[in-house]
Amino acid sequence: MCCCLLKVCCCLTSFLVCFSVFLLGANIAVSNMLFPVPKNAIPLPGNGGFWADCSDEVLKPLVVPEDLNNSTASDVQGKIEFTKISSDPVIWTPHSSHRQIVTKEMRYVPRSDVEGAESGKPKKMRQISATMHQFYKIGDKFWMTFLYLPKTDQCKEHDKDQLCPLPDETREGEDVTKAHRTLKTIHPKLGKYTPFGVYRSRQVWTDVESGVVVGCADMGFEYREEAPPGLDAEIDSGLFSQLQDWWSTAAEGSESENKEEGSEQIVV
Hints:
The protein is α+β, with helices and mostly antiparallel strands. It contains four helices and ten strands. It has a single domain (57-63, 71-256), classed as Immunoglobulin-like (Sandwich), CATH 2.60.40.770.
């Protein structure tokens, strides 16, 4: 009886191991075939970090309103262009004393592929979501998906950056034909057993009201045991203090909302 149970356990364990290896292989194959790093990726200092605007991979042809020539072009969907993405520190290490701060600079402009729209302003977006696809680079060669977050509320996440609405005619100095935003995301310190390597985030941005995809950002940042001199440098203490205040205020606001709604939320 004991021998039979032992054989069953061994067979089950072997099956689970083989099945796990199969799933891992399928994950890596799909991640690398369907989501390769964009050819226009701009490398960051170090060994593996990069950023890219991947809008060309996700934007679909739009139907032009029949009365476009007889009206303004404000009814035509615009697109988000990411003009620069950076990380501070450039290479994150366990010795970095502060959170990682990712800065995305972007602008919202008319679609150049829509005839007649370039002379007007893009449609205002009041609600924006982003689907996050997170990867880890195995052996510094192959990407593996480890997290997928659909339809995250970017207006709420970047409320302090005044992302929405976009464009905003009431905002002082706003150019409604080319609205600029600088968005900051603060990541807490990583856990003690977080593996070193390159972490990648592919974000597809969507106008919630119309359901139209408006932009894409792809970025990879390094987390290493050690970093070359200067690449794990601390930012200006005054600036970091301001960012800490920003983070605390945002967290307090979120907690107040949750208490009012009687629900709990985990901020990551």
